[in-house]
Amino acid sequence: MSKQKEGVNVTLDTPLTRGDNTVTDILLTKPNSGALRGTTLSDLMSLDVSALCKVLPRVSSPALTPQELNSMDPSDLVQLGTAFLDFLLPNSVRENLPQD
């Protein structure tokens, strides 16, 4: 079995602005089950926006705010969601996926 990544870096297509700083990359860390509270696995697996907006602030560095997620470029939300989705897949499924 292959070892699952503990974190993945996502480069945003449209950087976020925080005061005088620009955020171009977000590090997502592998969640524990507690980080998924308030959502359902099926919502996360289908990249439901509300579910992602609950979970992504808990696993992102720098931590994304709900306001940032709500105003984010949709392509960036999809990038973050699909990167997060990989954490939910069992090793047996991940082994059969094409490699980057």
**What portion of the residues fall into strands of 2 or more residues?**
15-25%
Give the C-alpha Rg: 14 Å
Runs in which pLDDT lies below 50 for 5 or more consecutive residues are none
SSE order: EEHHEHHH
List the total number of helices. Answer: 5
Total number of strands: 3
What's the end-to-end separation, in Å? 17 Å
Q: What is the molecular shape?
A: globular
| Rounded mean pLDDT score | 91
**Biggest sheet character:** 3 strands, antiparallel
Give the helix proportion (percent range): 40-55%
Q: Describe the strand arrangement of the main beta sheet, using strand numbers.
A: 1-2-3
Helical/strand content category: alpha+beta
InterPro entries: Phage_tail_E/E
Organism: Serratia marcescens
Pfam families: Phage_TAC_7
Protein name: Phage tail assembly protein
